[in-house]
Amino acid sequence: MSIVKSKIRTIPDYPKPGILFRDITSLLIDPEGFRLTVAMFVERYQNEKIQKIAAIDARGFIAGAALAFQLGVGFVPIRKKGKLPGKTISQSYALEYGEDHVEIHVDSIQAGEKVLIMDDLVATGGTLEASIQLIQKLEGKIHECATIIDLPDLGGAKRIKEKYGINIYSICEFEGH
């Protein structure tokens, strides 16, 4: 875990003053770091009989697709509104000033399928919560949510656990936001 954390850079004042942006691109360009990240997820989930990895646009796609490949399971993209062709369902979530939406194909998850939701990090938990709601609409069974980073000061993982009873596994935590 400390190796993965050490390869994630912090960019101060991005995208606005006062924010400490946790940038996983520095982890992704490091072969050892990226390989270790995927291996840690594989180790955790290889015996859990996951049937689909549902990953959130866009950085969640990276580890999510690699994990789906390693586990030999389906990969389901959860995208920003208007980015998926075909029939979709949509879920809104709150932003600091307004709201946004994520969508999923209606035929991507079958009732009762065991699903792991993946994203790069959990902050306030808005996109993870919207993704949970989408998968619940499709009657998928959510095993857990997985992220590379948790920002516990923002409370998203705790709120999702309390509200939905769904655990969020994160490889590392960073204090401050």
UniProtKB/TrEMBL annotation:
Instruction: Note one Pfam family from the annotation.
Output: Pribosyltran
Q: What job does the chain carry out?
A: Catalyzes a salvage reaction resulting in the formation of AMP, that is energically less costly than de novo synthesis.
Q: Name one GO biological process term.
A: adenine salvage
| Compartments in which it is found | Cytoplasm
The EC number(s) this enzyme carries: 2.4.2.7
Family the entry assigns: Belongs to the purine/pyrimidine phosphoribosyltransferase family.
Task: Return the protein name.
Answer: Adenine phosphoribosyltransferase
Ordered alphabetically, the record's keywords are: Cytoplasm, Glycosyltransferase, Purine salvage, Transferase
According to UniProt, this protein's pathway is: Purine metabolism; AMP biosynthesis via salvage pathway; AMP from adenine: step 1/1
Entry-linked PANTHER family: ADENINE PHOSPHORIBOSYLTRANSFERASE (PTHR11776), PHOSPHORIBOSYLTRANSFERASE DOMAIN-CONTAINING PROTEIN (PTHR11776:SF7)
Cellular component terms (Gene Ontology): cytoplasm
Gene3D superfamilies recorded for this chain?
Answer: 3.40.50.2020
Q: Describe the location of the Phosphoribosyltransferase domain by residue ranges.
A: 36-166
Which top EC class is given? transferase
Would you indicate the residue range of the signal peptide? none
Q: How does it assemble?
A: Homodimer.
